Structures are given as structure tokens and as C-alpha cells.
Amino acid sequence: MTTPALLPLSGRRIPTLSPGASSFPHHRATLRLSEKFILLLILSAFITLCFGAFFFLPDNSKHKRFDFGLEDVLIPHIESEKEARHSSRQVIHGVGAHDEHPRELRERMPRATAETKTRLETQTHTVSIHLSPEGEKKKNTHMMKHAWDSYRQYGWGHNELKPIAKKGHSTNIFGNSQMGATIVDALDTLYIMGLHDEFKDAQEWIEQNLDFSVNAEVSVFEVNIRFIGGLLAAYYLSGQEVFKVKAVQLAEKLLPAFNTPTGIPWAMVNLKSGVGRNWGWASAGSSILAEFGTLHMEFVHLTYLTGNPAYYQKVMHIRKLLAKMDRPNGLYPNYLNPRTGRWGQHHTSVGGLGDSFYEYLLKAWLMSDKTDTEARKTYDDAIEAIERHLIRKSNGGLTFIGEWKNGHLERKMGHLTCFAGGMFALGADGSPDDKAGHYLQLGAEIAHTCHESYDRTVLKLGPEAFKFDSGLEAVAVRQNEKYYILRPEVIETYWYMWRFTHDPKYRQWGWEAVQAIDKYCRVSGGFSGVKDVYSSNPTYDDVQQSFFLAETLKYLYLLFSSDELLPLENWVFNTEAHPLPVLHQGNITLPGSETQR
Ligand code: DMJ
């Protein structure tokens, strides 16, 4: 290093201190003793300064926690968990017939994830040009703050918030409970965004108030994806035991829902009495495919964390029962009667009533480190039938996913169905017959169609359902399909497409959504849904949905973050956007093993 130095004592300028004699003044070959001493003094002061600066550098480990490359997240609570372990040697085992003790699996996870992390670190420099638009991320964090602070002020402890009336809100999915759904659903988003005070506040409320011994009839599906999923994700991210304990307590309360003649759970269960029943509107007392088919991820993690095989066995039993059933045209109907084990109406949908069943087949495979090949095969077969019967191109060239109703295709697509773009992209790698490119393209086409459904409205927000019929392309017809209730699915697909393609248009589309939400849904008491996206003067529905904080704002934040934040190699997002770690090397299929109810 060359250091032009000034000698204050003599006031003389010393030329560059390089070892060659030629750089010294010619009239004198050596320095005097006093000059040598001063020079030595300056050099040692300089070296001390360098060392000091090194030690006072900001603590990088704080930032590293937010990489969530997993290794640093998981190690602390693997250690702390040793004492709390379930003593019985329950097994999670699979193909290859190796019985795996959950602890052994856990001990392997850090190694496997460290390897993944190293691999990632060598790859990410190639995409760094697109990373970290800090302004957009900040905007999302501010929106989260506004949603959270408003709920904190006006709806604290209630399930959701009425942002216009500025008071608590709830719906029948939570029964008459006051279980702070927004608090639990928002936990991991707060954590990921670095809103630590808010996270602590939420944790305190959960420690002191979250009690599941309430006389309330709740939706098994909703409580599973929002509460159990939310608590498990918070546990994995923060390592705080309380979240795991609460998740397990709640899961115990859901188990009676599986006491049906077939083991297909009821849609609802009373948390106190354990009595279950189905929705009155569901075809002839049926359970719903997207509800009983969206338990797998959380239940596998519950078994993994507790060593109790019951959760795993419940969901594997559902899978095995479905595998034995005939499927009309290879399609899964949305309704299944839990008493008789027969299908109800032959309706098939990749939107409401069907959606997350398909999503969880794919994610079961991903979460098992791609070892649950049974799940992958079931997913591939289902998607093939869906493509054959439900996916079409409109006259205007837009790819859409319709709904199958008793042998007839309804050319209508729901906002909920838009998640499928992301699902196709996520499932591209590993698809049969080398069709990865095809599925990535299909994902891109669905993303495009869903963006059109936003772009063709006045508010630039998407309607609940839109048609491709009688000259109509991606627009809602009925008044009761024109609302936007802060749903995440379109943004979810933008995020997955961004992760897999880095095409900047996905960030552009996400940014359009941010601006529209902020302009038309933001009110002084939080964020509200709007009743008509085609009206320039829309009325509000006065509900701030908990999934707005759990999903919509999280996916937006991730869309503008580096791929290293929650890498998809290590994390799988449940259907409510709660990230759960991949169980590396933990094969979670149980072919040939006994499953019980
Ligand atoms: C969320 O609760 C979940 O994404 C669920 O799978 C269906 N959709 C809602 C939000 O729209």
C-alpha cells in the first residue's frame, strides 16, 4: 500500500514511502535517528488505527439473520430443543426403508442446508444486477406498519380489523372466537421485515392471551393454514419455543375433526367439545377437497417437531384414501362425503374449493427434499388432467384455467386461481418428460392473464372472478364478482415468476399493484377491500383481512428482495405464505407402513 504522509513536526513533505531508494530525496541517502523514530511512531499509530477500525466494524451477524439461508436460523433451536424432546422413538421413514428418528433428521439439516447455502453463494452474483430495490421494499414495510399499527390500535386481540369503523372484526371461519388471527398470521412478515418491536409485542400477546380452550366452532383448514402455519413459521424463524408449544396445543384441538367414518375430516370443529360438522352449503354434507387436502405440510412438521406420529398418519390416510378412488376424467371433484367416502357433485376447480390441494401435493414433494415421489406423481397426474380439460386459450390469446362442472367447462377464472401460475413455475423443475420449459411457460401465461385482469379495470386491481366468453376477455361481468378483498394470489405468482426468470416485468407489475393498493385501499384506519374495481369511486368493504399481512405484503416484500432471503431450495411456503423449512434428507413418505386414524 502506498501512503503519502505528512510529517507535522518538521513540516516537510515526505515522498511516497516505498522501499526503493530511488523514491527518497537524492541529496540524502539515509534518515536521521530522530526522523526514523517519528516515522516508526506514525507507522505504529496507523497500524493500531487499522486494527481498531476492524474491530469496530458493525456486527454483520445481525444482518445475516435476515438471510434465512436457514443454517443460522435452525441451529439455535435444534440445540435448545434437546431437553424438550419427546422421549418415545417415533419414526418418520420412507423409501429405502430407513427408519429415521426425528432428532437424527434434525441434526442432519444444518449440514444439508449449509451445503445448499454455499452452492447459492456461488450462484447469486450472476443475478445481482436486479437485486434490492430498497425504495420498493421500504414502501412495503411502511404499508405493513400502517396495517399493523391500525390493527394494534383498533382491533387488538380480535381476529381482524374493520378499518373504516375502526373496530375488531371476525367471520364464521373463526367461529365466535377472539383468537387474534391477524397477530398470528402477521408474525413472520413482521420478523422478515425486521419489525422487531412489533414482533415482540405480538409474541407477548400470544404468550399471555392465546388460548384454544374456547367454545368456538372454527374452520379446520383456515385455522391450520393461518394459525398452525403461522406459529410454526414464527418458531422456525425466531427459535422461540412458545410458538411451537402453541402450535401443538392447537393441533391437538383439531384432531377430533378426523373422527369420521372415513377419516376425511369435518370442515369445522368445536375447539372445546371436539364436535365436528360440515358447511351447510357443501354438496350433500361433503367435505371440501381444498380443505382436507391442505393439511399435509403443517401436519408433517408437527410430527417432525414432536415425534408424535398421529399428525402424519392422519394426512397420509387422506392421501391413501384418495389414491384408491376413481377420478372422473382423471379429475378430482371438489366435494367428498366423509361418511360414505363418495364424491359429491362433479365440480373441479383450481380456484376456490380445489386450489391448495394441488399446491400441497407439489409442496409435500418439495418439503421432503424431493423424496416424496408419491406426492410428485399424484401432482403430475392431476395437472395433466387439468391441462387437458380445464386450460384453454381465449380468442384474444389469453391462457386461462376454467372450472369443470358436470362435464362442461365454465370459461371463468377466479382471482384465487391465479396462484396456479406460481405453482406451475415452482413445479417445472422435476416435471415428467422434460416438460420444465413447458410449465414455466404456462406459469408465465397465467401470470400474464392475471395481470390483464388487473390492467383492464379502472383501479388496476383484479376482480374476484373474470370471464372469457361472448367476446369478453379477463373482465368480471356480475356485480358480485367485481370486488377486490386484498387477496395475494396474483402477486404470489409474480413473485415466483420473478424468482425463476428475473424478468423485470414481474417487479413492474408488482409495483403497479403496490401503487393501486396504496391509492384505493388505504384508509386512515388501515387497508380495506373495495367492492367494485371498475368504478372510479369505489365503496369499501371495511375489512382488513389477516391474509393481507400474512401474504400480500410478504410476497410484495419478497418480490423486491434478494433471492437469498428465504431461498426456495430451503423453504416451502404454505398456502398462507408461511415459510416452513425443507426437511432435508428426511423422507416423509410411508409406503407400506401402517397408517392409523
Ligand atoms: C388465503 O387464506 C390462502 O391463500 C388460501 O389458500 C386461499 N386464499 C386466501 C387468500 O385469498
UniProtKB/TrEMBL annotation:
Its cofactor is Ca(2+). One of its GO terms (molecular function) is calcium ion binding. Signal peptide: none annotated. The keyword Cytoplasm does not apply. It comes from Sinocyclocheilus grahami (Dianchi golden-line fish). Ca(2+) binds at T575. Keywords: Calcium, Disulfide bond, Glycosidase, Hydrolase, Membrane, Metal-binding, Signal-anchor, Transmembrane, Transmembrane helix. Involved in the maturation of Asn-linked oligosaccharides. Progressively trim alpha-1,2-linked mannose residues from Man(9)GlcNAc(2) to produce Man(5)GlcNAc(2). Pathway: Protein modification; protein glycosylation. GO terms for biological process: carbohydrate metabolic process. It is found in: Endomembrane system. Disulfide bonds join C418-C450. It catalyses: N(4)-(alpha-D-Man-(1->2)-alpha-D-Man-(1->2)-alpha-D-Man-(1->3)-[alpha-D-Man-(1->2)-alpha-D-Man-(1->3)-[alpha-D-Man-(1->2)-alpha-D-Man-(1->6)]-alpha-D-Man-(1->6)]-beta-D-Man-(1->4)-beta-D-GlcNAc-(1->4)-beta-D-GlcNAc)-L-asparaginyl-[protein] (N-glucan mannose isomer 9A1,2,3B1,2,3) + 4 H2O = N(4)-(alpha-D-Man-(1->3)-[alpha-D-Man-(1->3)-[alpha-D-Man-(1->6)]-alpha-D-Man-(1->6)]-beta-D-Man-(1->4)-beta-D-GlcNAc-(1->4)-beta-D-GlcNAc)-L-asparaginyl-[protein] (N-glucan mannose isomer 5A1,2) + 4 beta-D-mannose; N(4)-(alpha-D-Man-(1->2)-alpha-D-Man-(1->2)-alpha-D-Man-(1->3)-[alpha-D-Man-(1->3)-[alpha-D-Man-(1->2)-alpha-D-Man-(1->6)]-alpha-D-Man-(1->6)]-beta-D-Man-(1->4)-beta-D-GlcNAc-(1->4)-beta-D-GlcNAc)-L-asparaginyl-[protein] (N-glucan mannose isomer 8A1,2,3B1,3) + 3 H2O = N(4)-(alpha-D-Man-(1->3)-[alpha-D-Man-(1->3)-[alpha-D-Man-(1->6)]-alpha-D-Man-(1->6)]-beta-D-Man-(1->4)-beta-D-GlcNAc-(1->4)-beta-D-GlcNAc)-L-asparaginyl-[protein] (N-glucan mannose isomer 5A1,2) + 3 beta-D-mannose. Its EC number is 3.2.1.-. InterPro entries: 6hp_glycosidase-like_sf (IPR012341), Glyco_hydro_47 (IPR001382), Glycosyl_Hydrolase_47 (IPR050749), Seven-hairpin_glycosidases (IPR036026). It is a single-pass type II membrane protein. The gene is LOC107569377. Its main location: membrane. Belongs to the glycosyl hydrolase 47 family. This is alpha-1,2-Mannosidase. The chain crosses the membrane at residues 37-57. Coiled coil: none annotated. The active site is at E222 (proton donor), D355, E464 (proton donor), E489. GO terms for cellular component: endoplasmic reticulum; extracellular exosome; Golgi membrane. It holds the Pfam family Glyco_hydro_47.
